């Protein structure tokens, strides 16, 4: 499978396993899971050709490990806007995590902190490099440091997804460290 096709499949799966399953006739269970055969039939019925081999390739090679397969089921690892319970346990974060964004959002972030927007949680990265890649999807990236050690001590809850993305409901501005140039 060429890279363009893999990206197209990944985006299609993300859209329907995270945000709009009903659009292709899917019903996710409470944990966000759907039978792979059901997914493949739904995709085909909507005119999007996808083989099991292509699906397996995208799941195995996706650089962010966006999807999880368990037996005969698949789900998105995190980032849902539909109501699901990923069943993630609370986790103790490292002292600092990182969030990638772009300069036009900084004023709102300074005023309101980080909010989940259309997702259930704010996504944080374990390292600056990953946060830089996340921010670069929207333009020139700005990486914010998040004092997650202090947040945790103050009672904020953290979880970590199977692919290493840290999740929390929100990040108040007082826990954010902005780069000096911004």
From TrEMBL:
GO terms for molecular function: transferase activity, transferring phosphorus-containing groups. InterPro entries: Ptrans_KptA/Tpt1, RNA_2'-PTrans_C, RNA_2'-PTrans_KptA, RNA_2'-PTrans_N. SUPFAM superfamilies: ADP-ribosylation. Keywords: NAD, Transferase. Belongs to the KptA/TPT1 family. Removes the 2'-phosphate from RNA via an intermediate in which the phosphate is ADP-ribosylated by NAD followed by a presumed transesterification to release the RNA and generate ADP-ribose 1''-2''-cyclic phosphate (APPR>P). May function as an ADP-ribosylase. This is Probable RNA 2'-phosphotransferase. The gene is kptA.
């Amino acid at each position: 499978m060429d890279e363009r096709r893999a990206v197209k499949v990944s985006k299609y799966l993300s859209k329907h396993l995270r945000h709009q399953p009903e659009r292709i006739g899917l019903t996710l269970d409470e944990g966000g899971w759907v039978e792979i055969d059901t997914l493949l039939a739904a995709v085909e019925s909507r005119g999007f050709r996808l083989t099991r081999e292509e699906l397996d390739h995208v799941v195995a090679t996706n650089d962010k490990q966006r999807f999880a397969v368990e037996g005969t089921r698949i789900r998105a690892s995190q980032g849902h806007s539909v109501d699901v319970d990923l069943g993630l346990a609370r986790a103790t974060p490292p002292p600092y995590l990182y969030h990638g964004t772009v300069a036009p959002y900084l004023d709102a972030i300074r005023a309101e902190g980080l909010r989940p927007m259309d997702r259930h949680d704010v996504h944080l990265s374990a390292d600056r490099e990953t946060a830089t890649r996340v921010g670069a999807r929207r333009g020139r990236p700005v990486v914010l440091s998040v004092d997650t050690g202090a947040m945790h001590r103050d009672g904020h809850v953290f979880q970590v997804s199977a692919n290493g993305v840290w999740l929390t409901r929100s990040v108040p501005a007082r826990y954010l460290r902005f780069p000096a140039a911004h």
